[in-house]
Amino acid sequence: MSALSWAVVSAPIGPLTVGATEVGLCLVAFGAHPERAVAVAERLDLEPVEEPSPAVRQLAEYFAGERRVFDLTLDWRLTHGTQRTVLQTLFRGVPFGGTTTYAELAAASGAYEGHGYTAARGVGSIMGSNPIPVVVPCHRVTAADGLGGFGGGRATKEWLLAHEGVLTPTLF
Fold this sequence. Notes:
This protein is an alpha/beta fold and 172 residues long. The protein has six helices and six strands, in the order E-E-E-H-E-H-H-E-H-H-E-H. Helix 3 crosses helix 4 (102-109) and helix 4 crosses helix 5.
């Protein structure tokens, strides 16, 4: 049986649970959640093995300011249909330090032709279901009139955008 390698890693935004298959990275979850890795392994019919993958090193480099582009193969099996199309468009099209809006991403993906406002809402839902946040940078997707939501919490989104130079770091 193939394996899902997983590890809980510390990051400035809090712990992350990271999982990768033989195909590539498939999971980045906010928080220390080994049970999420085990559930993903079961869903993909893999054996969960606690060991770091190359993604752990690249995430550490990103958080240290030493990496702007993730050079990882991604395993998209936890995504499907429109969700996969939108997330792949985001991954390929919105670089470090860049942002896009929900509506712009909907249009760029081509997945919501002619759906107007509902397209932006659909993309918002997809961002909330992203199984590989940070690497597939849903934090770079904003509302037309502000930051919008984020599965890791607003403070995490603000930190990530400040880290990438999009926002000025908050003064305390």
